[in-house]
Amino acid sequence: MKKMKFGLLIVAGVFAWAPFSFAAGGLCKAPTANSALELDGCKQGDTLILREIHFDTDSARIKEMSFAFLDKVSSELKENPTIKVAVQGHTDSIGAADYNMDLSQNRAQSVRYYLVSAGVNPNQLVAQGFGLTEPLADNATSQGRASNRRVELKLVGTLVLSEPKPTNVYISTFHAKPMELVVPVGTQVTWTNYDEISHDITFDGVPGTRIWTKGWKGDTYSLQFDNPGTYSYHCDVHKDVNGRIVVKSAVDEYVTTESPIYPGQTTSSYEAKQTVQRVGG
């Protein structure tokens, strides 16, 4: 497993209530008073208790005070994209068992949704609710009930990633084809110019690179997209040359645009031809 650092300091003596702490039975070593949390010793089945995630009472709505902590969790998961974890919700024993099961599942799903929205690959995450079935402490006391209300992150396996594949946009008849391209994080996109004149690609007002023509050979410009989002572009000279790159944490298929039949083809009758390949096969 790739080395993972959460980069958080946990003070000795308050381990049970620290932002990250380990459930009993795991082989992961607790950090010292002055060291960052490292997961080198962790393996499948080890569990982290996330004590800094809070919800509104009887609700799956995450409190705003938890957002900064969840952003740190999302950053670490994005930096370690091969780990697969289960987001597990737990409640105390107040209320009916069915109600608590639903509440814990909804809270786990809320956390998963937040992490995915922050850019974590959804394939890394599964949401599970356990209700009141797995208490850590005695529910007869308020302190015990508070301890039992928790979200855990359990290491459940390794995610096998497909390498992002380069994909192509070509410029012909003063248009970008395709005008919208959906790619996974980490993809390199290449623009190839088949027009008789150069184009100057600009992303949302940020100057990019001029794509010169080379006697029908087709000059190129490449850019790698490492963060989810929608990136719009246009040519500073020819406004019809425009489009957008939609970057997602994961996609179900790769779409590759084929080059024109011969370099320099600029007839308006030429249609964009694409090859679609499903991820994993």
UniProtKB/TrEMBL annotation:
Annotated keywords: Copper, Membrane, Metal-binding, Signal
What is the protein name for this chain?
A: OmpA family protein
Pfam family for this entry, one: OmpA
Q: Where is the OmpA-like domain?
A: 42-159
Concerning InterPro entries, the annotation shows: Bact_OuterMem_StrucFunc, BlueCu_1, OmpA-like
Position of the signal peptide: 1-23
Q: Does the keyword Chaperone apply?
A: no
- Reply yes or no: does the keyword Metal-binding apply: yes
